[in-house]
Amino acid sequence: MGFNIAVDGPAGAGKSTIAKLVAKKMNLIYVDTGAMYRAMALYFIKNDVDINNVEAVAKACIGADITLKYEEGVQMVYLNGENVTAFLRTEEVGNAASVTSGVPQVRARLLELQQTLAKNSDCIMDGRDIGTCILPNADVKIYLTASSEVRAKRRYDELVSKGEECDLAKIQEDIEERDFRDMNREVAPLKQAEDAVLVDSSYMSIDEVVERIVGIAESCK
């Protein structure tokens, strides 16, 4: 059995950034489940599937084959044989993933791959329901969060650095709406597992968060 770390939390909390750094520091495989859900959402967008039509989403997801590969130490996401890593972080894809990730058939399509990887490898996995649903027996569970104001500012700064025009207030509004959807969806809602350690990164540096999680994980080995 692999040594598994589950990292859950709301959108924009820095889960992916932190999980990648922890993986590197502890020599773990990093599994970005959010990227897999985003790839599925991209599949729906590419194929003009109405993401608000649950039946259509459930039927269409069967045609999506999503795999993870490491190329020169960097994780790449492949959708039906095409490297789509560069297309997964747009607002359109992110919002579509939030809407469709609660569809049972979408979860079932991705769940087997995620659990098999965790069973056979030492890994860290981040998402919305890792500790509560996907890896309920994970050795370490972290609930990583930050205030909506801080998360919106981080996203704003990221977009501005890429030369994109954006509205900070609108970004925060979108984040809060996504939080509500994620926390109130019928299937696997976002919530802190009872045995998860809460880490609020609002006033912590990235290095401080990494050290905190590594310290927790090392104490559990």
Explain how this protein is built.
The protein is an alpha/beta fold. The chain folds into 2 domains: 1-28 and 123-221, Rossmann fold (3-Layer(aba) Sandwich); 30-121, Rossmann fold, CATH 3.40.50. The chain is 50% helix and 17% strand. The chain has 9 helices and 8 strands. It has helices at residues 15-26, 33-46, 54-60, 91-100, 104-120, 130-134, 148-161, 168-184, 206-220; strands spanning 4-8, 29-32, 66-71, 74-79, 82-83, 123-127, 140-145, 197-200. Strands 2-6-1-7-8 form a 5-stranded parallel beta sheet, with helices on both faces. Strands 3-4-5 form a 3-stranded antiparallel beta sheet. A hairpin with a 2-residue loop joins strand 4 (74-79) and strand 5. The radius of gyration is 17 Å and the shape is globular. It starts with a strand and ends with a helix.
